Structure formats: C-alpha cells, structure tokens
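Morning. Coffee machine broken again, so started the prediction first thing and wrote up yesterday's gels while waiting. Chain of 89 residues, entered below exactly as on the submission form.
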Amino acid sequence: MNEKVAGRDFSSVVRAILLTQEIPEPKHLVRREIVRRQMSAYEAEKIRHIAYFGSNLNQLARAANQGKGFAQVYPALLSLEREMRRFAE
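Came back before lunch.
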C-alpha cells in the first residue's frame, strides 16, 4: 500500500479509496517529498526542533487566550525562549 500512495497528495488517495477507485498516478511530487529528499539528516533534525518550538508557542498562546493568566504562561514562555536561544547557538 505504501508504494501505491508514495508521492501522491493525501486528498487524492483518500478520495480514491473512499470511492473504491484506482489510486491515480501523481501529477508531480508533493512539495514536502521534494524537500525531504534534498534534506540531510542534520537539516531534518533542525526542522523537527523548529516545529517543536512552534507547537509549544501555539500552546502557550492558546493558554494565554483562554485566560490562564500571565503568571502561569510567562515562566513557560521564558523557558521556551531559553531553549530556542540554545538551539540557535
């Protein structure tokens, strides 16, 4: 199955499966597949860290917007900032 869906966009594969049709040939490689193939392991690890930081920042923003209060969010935000600075060095 993995070989059948490689390089195809998710929506085309799901649509074909749900409609019991043949999975279409890819028109072109999905952009993230192109980027992954050109990326070294070191670069991929860096990208994962950046995604982690973004996820944590979104969680902190959500907490702040839900009224958790500055006193609860600020220490976590400082901790995230320290991690990001260490990562950037």
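The chain has two domains: 1-38, 40-89. Going to sketch it on the whiteboard this afternoon.
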